[in-house]
Design goal:
Blueprint: E1 5-8, H1 12-23, E2 28-31, H2 42-49, E3 57-59, H3 62-67, E4 74-77, H4 83-92, E5 101-104, H5 110-122, E6 126-133, H6 135-141, E7 144-148, H7 151-164, H8 183-212, H9 217-227, H10 235-245, E8 247-248, E9 251-252, H11 266-277, H12 282-294, H13 297-306, H14 318-347, H15 353-359, H16 369-380, H17 388-410, H18 416-428, H19 435-446
Parallel strand pairs: 1-2, 1-4, 2-3, 4-5, 5-6
Antiparallel strand pairs: 6-7, 8-9
Helix pairs in contact: 1-6, 8-11, 8-12, 8-14, 9-10, 11-12, 12-18, 14-17, 14-18, 15-16, 17-18
């Protein structure tokens, strides 16, 4: 009997997705490479362990794996992004046929997805670049899925993807057609960029509560748990509350962890994409830079001995901190959606922002009540930046954000994301900025010219500044 779906790569995510697919009644063929003494009979042993996989077929021979699938073949590739994907695709081309569908479910760069799609189209093979969010648990119980491909390819895999996806607040699958080419991987990349800033914001709130307000981790956990019962509920807040309570004996596990945050590159990709498109994605970039600075542990230790800043501030009001966090998160999300909107226009992807928001309401790392609110707002208005949600939240919480940022900075505590959210609001609400001076400087040293305030669409002008 031929299998209806194939999965290549049985790492953490591949295994969880396989169990998810199989639990929904799909017949699978599972492939994992054979590496003597290191990776042997991986698929076979995996099937033995989980009862829901009993009807699955196992392979470590790629040709036999491909032959076991009904046509057109539908193959999900779950290997490391980069050269490994290209290697698998190259090997598959010896065995697959026109109209077969390859799905890259890894964190691939959207430009690499575009390149692979173009290459495979020459062989009349359909390619899907699919963002997958939710981690190991999400992959098993219901992830958020962001497929980018031709509509024709999507129609052939839609049923399978929607069956395994999480359900949104309306009971619909957290899986939507995102757009052509690398649209799915671009949207997943922006998801990760938003995630960077969300994590950093919570870290900054933790820093304020612990080191300015002198609250111990267990009580901070209780505060965050209480916040998570309100309109600012989100998955990362919930998971942080759990982290803060964890102890080994009398000691908090958190206090034993080196303060050196790592990253896998997707945050940097997002900042570079924003720069290429000319879109401010300042909060995610601030979070990325915070990770870079955290990696300079030895340097930080040395400098701290030479420059001993007094880190002390008056305790800050808890409600003000909460409101500051709430407003900063809105800025972060709006920047993310503006980046997706810009890419969609530039690459003619026709991404529906409403669908993106709905896909992100469950099953993913940035799932939250705010995302549901954004989805509802996007049902009525395609713009989030020029929207009453943004206007009302700034009017209600701006003073608390400014008070919180000011208090933390007065105490010499680094809060890059909170302060960047304030900078962004200050800039985006300023009708007359200082860009005129920048233009004059550019014209001074490079004769780059400038436009006139009373004729912005008119001719460019140049001044001989030194005469």
């Amino acid at each position: 009997m031929k299998s209806e779906f194939g999965i290549i790569g049985l790492g953490v995510m591949g295994k969880s997705l396989a169990r998810n697919f199989s639990s929904k009644g799909f017949n699978l063929s599972l492939f994992n490479r054979h590496v003597s003494g290191k990776e042997e009979n991986v698929a076979k042993e995996f099937i033995k362990v989980h009862d829901e996989l009993r009807i699955c077929q196992s392979f470590d021979d790629l040709e036999k794996f491909v032959s076991s699938l009904e046509t057109p073949r539908k193959i999900l590739i779950m290997v490391n992004a980069g050269e490994a994907i290209d290697s698998v695709i190259s090997d598959l081309l010896d065995f697959i046929q026109p109209n077969d569908i390859l799905i890259d479910g890894g964190n691939s760069h959207y430009k690499a997805t575009n390149r692979r799609k173009n290459k495979l189209s020459e062989a009349h093979v359909q390619f899907v670049g699919m963002g997958v969010s939710g981690g190991e648990e999400g992959a098993l119980k219901g992830p958020s899925l962001m497929p980018g491909c031709d509509q024709q390819a999507y129609s052939k895999i839609e049923h399978y993807l929607k069956e395994i996806a999480a359900k949104d607040y309306e009971g619909n699958p957290c899986c939507r057609f995102i757009g052509n080419e690398g649209a799915g991987h671009f949207v997943k990349m922006v998801h990760n960029g938003i995630e960077y800033a969300e994590m950093q914001l919570i870290a900054e709130i933790y820093s304020i509560l612990r080191y300015i307000n002198k609250i111990d981790p267990n009580n901070i956990s209780e505060i965050l748990t209480d916040w998570n019962r309100s309109e600012i509920q989100n998955y990362l807040l919930e998971s942080t509350a759990i982290i803060l309570k964890k102890k080994t004996g009398d000691d908090y596990v958190l206090d034993s962890i080196l303060d050196q945050a790592s990253h896998k590159g997707t945050g940097a990709w997002t900042s570079m994409a924003a720069a290429e498109l000319g879109v401010p994605f300042t909060m995610s970039t601030a979070a990325l830079n915070a990770r870079f600075i955290s990696s300079l542990k030895e340097t930080r230790v040395k400098i701290s001995k030479e420059i001993e800043l007094k880190r002390d501030a008056e305790p800050l009001d808890l409600n003000s901190i909460k409101h500051a966090y709430k407003l900063a998160r809105i800025v972060n999300h709006i920047q993310g959606f503006m980046l997706i909107e810009s890419a969609s226009k530039s690459y003619s992807w026709n991404i529906d922002l409403k669908n993106v928001a709905k896909v992100w309401t469950n099953g993913c790392i940035i799932a939250s009540k705010l995302m549901i609110k954004l989805a509802n707002n996007l049902e009525k208005d395609s713009s989030l930046i020029e929207n009453t949600l943004m206007f009302d939240q700034v009017k209600m919480n701006y003073t608390d954000l400014k008070r919180t940022v000011s208090g933390a900075l007065q105490g010499s505590f680094p809060i890059p994301c909170l302060s960047e959210s304030l900078n962004y609001i200050n800039a985006i609400t300023q009708a007359d900025g200082v860009g005129n001076l920048i233009q004059a400087q550019r014209d001074f040293f490079g004769a780059h010219t400038y436009k006139l305030k009373d004729d912005p669409e008119g001719p460019s002008h140049h001044t001989e500044w030194s005469k």
